[in-house]
Amino acid sequence: MLDDNLNIKKLQEIIGAARFENPTQFKDFLKPQLLQHLALRNRRMLAKLETEKGRYDLQVFDSLTNRETLVLIGLKTANNTPQLTAEDIDAFQEECKEVQALYGALMTETEVHFYEFKYEIKKGLVIKTDITEVKDIRPLNYIDAEFERVITTQKIKDLLISRKKTVIAVILVIILLIASNLAQNQICKDSGTIKGLTNSQGVKTYYIPTSSGYNSRQATIRFCSEDDAKDAGYTKVK
């Protein structure tokens, strides 16, 4: 993926002297540039419109779950906001914390701020967030490796959802096997050829069709095989 870190110099090279009338133009220009630079497949870069804040966000999602945000990029145009204000930065940081992004990049065509976020989580809830302004963003392949080492309940759920056809097929097979086993057990109980009897002393014996007295015996339980009878604690009649 990235050969080296994403930093302000590289973004300045990407943007160059380009200027934009609105955030939409900025997003449309920057998205393919970032896709190319980060060597990401299109499905891993999703655009999200924040209408109430008047900017477009580009989110790079984890490849396994498409949920966990690796990088959140906030865009504004210098035409509308010559420089980023403290309110812009606070709002962007809150949004990064909301989606638990590892990195955030807030920028106009002429200004960029990189932030790294570290979360302290207990019982699935974020109890503390440390925010550090950094000079660059580490290569995404490093970040991917971090995510691959952490297996969460949400990842398992998302993986099952992504493989839902296979999961459903496996569940159906299991249900059919259970139903077949239950049906077979019922057939054995109703018409199995092995007759099981328990006398007044609680002694359990079983008769096979060739046993003496087989036809005259009234079974208290039936089995399909001698092994089933033995497993149930019955002994073959002498």
The helix fraction, in percent, is 25-40%
In the CATH scheme, the class of the largest domain would be Alpha Beta
Task: Write the element-wise H/E pattern from the N-terminal end onward.
Answer: EHHEEEHEEEEHHHEEEHE
What's the mean pLDDT score?
A: 76
* Radius of gyration using CA atoms only: 33 Å
Report a brief summary of the structure.
Helix content is 38%, strand content 27%. By secondary structure, it is an alpha+beta fold.
Explain the overall architecture.
The chain is of the alpha+beta class and 238 residues long. The chain folds into 2 domains: 6-162, Alpha-Beta Complex (tt1808, chain A), CATH 3.90.1570; 166-236, no CATH class. The chain has 7 helices and 12 strands. The strands form 3 sheets. It has a 6-stranded mixed β-sheet, with helices on both faces. A hairpin with a 2-residue loop joins β6 and β7. It is rod-shaped, with a radius of gyration of 33 Å. It starts with 5 loop residues before the first strand and ends with a strand.
Short key terms for the protein model shown above:
238 residues; tt1808, chain A; four-stranded mixed sheet; 38% helix
